[in-house]
Structure formats: C-alpha cells, structure tokens
Automatic annotation (TrEMBL):
Organism this protein belongs to: Massilia phyllostachyos
Record's protein name: YceI family protein
Alphabetized SUPFAM superfamilies for the sequence: YceI-like
Entry superkingdom: Bacteria
Lineage: Bacteria, Pseudomonadati, Pseudomonadota, Betaproteobacteria, Burkholderiales
This protein's UniProt keywords: Signal
Pfam families membership: YceI
C-alpha cells in the first residue's frame, strides 16, 4: 500500500512539473535592440548575442520565470568604429562587465495575452528593480514574448565622462525584445 501511495505521489509531482517547462529560444526569430536619440535623431541598434531562459506555463503564469543574459560587446550600431567605442570604459566597459542581465522576480497576468513582469536589471555593475508589460502569443507552434523596457542610461553609468551630456546622447533608452521559444 505504501508503495502505491509513493507511486501516486511521485506521479502527481511529475504531473505538476510537466505544466511548466524551460522553453528553447529560437535565435533566428528573436531579437534585443536598444533605441535612443543621438543629437535628436532616433537610433536603433541590436545586441547580436544574448540568451534567454524562459520557464513558462500559460495556465499558471505566476509560476513562470525568466532570465536574460546579453553580451555587451555584441552591441551593433552598424559601424565597426562605433561598435568598438561602445565597448570602452565610458560606455559598456565590456572588458569588466561582459554581460547585462535580467532575472524575473514575478510574472503576473494582465489580461488576455498580456503579463506584467518584474525583476532585477543589472548593467555595468548597477542593479535596478524594473517592471514592464509583456505580450505573449503563439506563432508557428512557439510562444512569442514581446516587450519594451524604458531605462535611463545614466542610472547604469552608460556614457561616462564627456558622454554624460544628454544633449549629445539622450538619457532615455528603450530596450525592445522579441523572444520566440518552444519545446
């Protein structure tokens, strides 16, 4: 009898875990960009290297978790000289801080196909608690997570020295992301 109870308990535990699963990110259909203004002109650049770990259960979104790591040296402004410049100490300081990270602390439903995500954003050794809306939809058998997170670059020491002048590069930056992931 105890063996049967143990087997039933193990089966129930396995079923509970089966609802949430770490999804595999499809890099070809995923992106992370940063949009900002330089001398009043909008600029959008992308991070060419990032990983996302998403443990998502549509039936229980509050039990979901997400984390993202972005290689700061992969920031691509479309020009090799600019790309080299932003890896330097005044900008991302990629030698000392090779990764920017986000780790969720809560994910809450916010209506059909919408979630509110909170967590810790860490860039260049500085951390901040952030909250942002996230849209979730199914596309081609995968889950697609899309959102935008506005930040102030100076809060993370991005653009030190002469680059603190926000008339050259605005303080406001919007990190936009689209992550396509599935089983």
């Amino acid at each position: 009898m105890k063996a049967i109870q143990g087997l039933l308990l193990a089966s129930a535990f396995a079923s509970a875990l089966a609802g949430a699963a770490v999804l595999k990110t499809d890099p070809a259909k995923s992106s992370v960009t940063a949009t900002f203004k330089q001398m009043g002109v909008p600029v959008e650049a992308r991070f060419k290297q990032f990983t996302a770990q998403i443990d998502y259960d549509a039936a229980k979104p509050a039990a979901s978790k997400a984390s993202v790591e972005i290689a700061t040296a992969s920031f691509d402004l479309g020009d090799p000289d600019y790309n080299k410049e932003v890896t330097k100490k005044d900008w991302f300081n990629a030698a000392q801080f090779p990764k920017a990270t986000f780790v969720s602390s809560s994910i809450a439903p916010a209506g059909a196909g919408k979630l509110n995500v909170s967590g810790t954003l860490n860039i260049k050794g500085r951390s901040a608690q952030v909250t942002f809306p996230l849209a979730v939809k199914s596309e081609g058998g995968k889950q697609v997570f899309e959102g935008a997170l506005p930040i102030k670059r100076l809060a993370f020491n991005i653009g030190e020295g002469e680059w603190k002048d926000t008339s050259m590069v605005a303080d406001e930056v919007v990190i936009k992301f689209r992550v396509s992931a599935g089983q």
